[in-house]
Design goal:
alpha+beta; seven-stranded mixed sheet; 4 helices; Aminopeptidase
């Protein structure tokens, strides 16, 4: 697999992967990223503030987009980034790529000066929760500034 920075040309592909994942887990509901206005133009958000945000696209050897992972500053905790939009196409799941992607985004967060990483997810995403916990994330109470009201699990990790 190949990791690279997101470009506007990736927007439609990663939006399809995200929506497909959410739909299959019955999370195509209000209060999730499924209905975010900027999902169809996701690159704009990450490219707009590169000192505080980053998004990686994952492609196969043929250049086909198969997933992505990002981070953005999270103001609820000091020097904290939020792990965002970790999604993979079904055909590449189960090979440990999620762990590799989390390591990559954590390394990027450290390089950007972040000391903690936060994430929010949902109980319907049990496989993702398992990966997060194996990577050292610990469940916390819901922070006050949570934007996606449909999420019901919240995690934090010291980097």
């Amino acid at each position: 697999m190949i990791y690279r920075d997101i470009t506007p040309e990736d927007d439609q592909y990663i939006a399809e992967i995200i929506r497909d994942n959410l739909r299959k887990r019955k999370l195509d509901i209000p209060g999730t990223v499924y209905f975010d206005d900027n999902l169809n133009h996701i690159s704009e958000f990450y490219l707009d503030s590169p000192s505080k945000r980053h998004y990686y696209i994952v492609t196969d050897v043929n250049g086909q987009v198969v997933g992505g992972i990002g981070l953005a500053e999270f103001d609820e905790f000091e020097k904290c980034a939020e792990l965002q939009k970790l999604y993979l196409s079904d055909e590449v799941k189960g090979d440990g790529m999620g762990y590799e992607m989390i390591k990559l985004i954590e390394d990027t967060a450290r390089e950007m000066g972040y000391e903690k990483m936060y994430l929010e997810t949902h109980t319907n995403l049990a496989a993702a929760i398992h990966i997060y916990q194996k990577c050292g994330f610990r469940e916390i109470e819901k922070p006050a500034g949570v934007v996606h009201s449909g999420m019901n699990k919240f995690f934090l990790k010291t980097l």
